Amino acid sequence: MRKSLLAACAVVLLSAGWGETGQAAEDAIPVGVIANLTGTDVQSSLDMVHGAQAAADKINASGGIKGDKIKVIVEDSEYRPAAGIEAATKLFDVNKVSAVLVFGGSSVTLPIAEMAQPAGKIVLNTSASSAKLGDYPGTLYSTLPLDDIVGAQLGDYVAKEGVHTAVFIVPNNTFGTGLMDKAAAAFTAHGGKVLKEIAYSEGQPDYRADLQAVQRLKPDAIIGAGYGDDTRTVFRAARELGINAPWYVAYPSIFAVEDPKWMEGRLMGLDNGGLDSPLAKTLSLQATKQYGAAPRPNYYYAYDAMTLLGLAIEKEGTTAADIKKGLPEAVKGYQGATGSIDWDARGQRINPPMDYFVFRNGALQPAPAP
After folding, report:
1. Full-model pTM
2. Using one digit for the tens of pLDDT, what is the confidence trace for 341-359?
3. Into which CATH architecture does domain 2-144+275-337 fall?
4. Most CB atoms within 10 A, among 34, 202, 289, 310?
């Protein structure tokens, strides 16, 4: 397995145009990409690298930026905060990049932003979603909407569905509780009543003790967040306890359904949208032809990040101060692979396109917006 991962990384490095040292050519504009080439969720990370490279290739094919081409320099974060910091330090100090694109969870992206801020560097976030990422205005810009935005839209959605009472069930971490706070505020603002908020400890073999309160309270609906095996275990506990309330969740695609028949029509939710644009469809076809499979969403978020970076550099210049000045202008009226992008004063995406889903016939199916 290790050998195959290293081989995959070698392909990425070659496709990104590295030399053996990873140094950019003197007549090129170096841009850093930090991705977990080893560790967790490698394929999504490779897709992110490919998306960034696709945007750089398009810029370079059109003559570059005032004659200078973009040189993508990729470093491995291993999906570890310490390795992410090491990668960023190398890119900033050795390769002299002004900006980096980062793929990784908030545990990787936040420390990079923390060290980039006093150094006066720019971070473009393509995958992390913690609301705390908004604490670095002028340093960190996101093409992916953060959990506070998605949480608020989830609360609005549930209220518009006619739900009056709800129980929240989320993992007890920054992702779960942060999203819950925003969703609960939006839900109650519409007159909804939160009967209970349950934040469970991850990795338990059984969650019936946590869900017994739901059984007693009999809410109209359950509002949730989660991912992977824990969600499967939570669903099993709900089924065994006879809890038949519908589930409204954020990012349903990362939930693991335990019993498809029981879940039929019971799981609904919203996820980041905008990937049905003509540009996204064209990029998907190109990537499928080049890499043998349709890319994951991070491909498109990275494509937009690199394109916006290129526009900012073209408008203002290559220093971090130039890019900081140029990015808010570059995003105005921008129509990208993930749809239109609007930023607030912090450089965080607002009013993002959202897709809605319901679980039917054994899979998530598109559903109409409320």
Report:
1. 0.84
2. 999 999 999 999 999 999 9
3. 3-Layer(aba) Sandwich (3.40)
4. 34
Q: Which CATH class is domain 148-273+354-367?
A: alpha beta
CB 60 within 8 A of CB 102: no
Structure tokens at 356: 């809605």
pLDDT per residue as tens digits for the range 193-209: 999 999 999 999 999 99
H or E segment to which residue 247 belongs: strand 247-250
DSSP characters for 126-146?
Answer: SS---GGGGG-TTTEEESSPP
pLDDT at 26: 58
Residue 220 has pLDDT above 60, yes or no: yes
Q: What is the pLDDT of residue 40?
A: 80
- Kindly list the distances between the CA atom of residue 47 and the CA atoms of 295, 297, 364, in Å, as whole numbers in the listed order: 6, 8, 22
Look at residues 90, 249, 100, 235 and name the one whose alpha carbon lies nearest to residue 183: 249
Quick check: do 2-144+275-337 and 148-273+354-367 share a fold? yes
The single-letter code of the amino acid at 46 is L
Domain extents for the chain? 2-144+275-337, 148-273+354-367
Model confidence band, residue 329 (pLDDT cutoffs 50, 70, 90)? very high
**Tokens linked to 159:** 């209220």
Compute CA 226 distance to the chain's CA centroid, rounded to the nearest angstrom. Answer: 14
Angle at 23 (CA atoms; ends 18, 26), nearest 5 degrees? 110
Q: For residue 160, with 0-12 CB atoms within 10 Å meaning exposed, 13-18 middle and 19 or more buried, which class applies? A: exposed
Angstrom CA distances, 20 to 9, 10, 53, stand at 13, 11, 18
Mean pLDDT of 85-92: 98
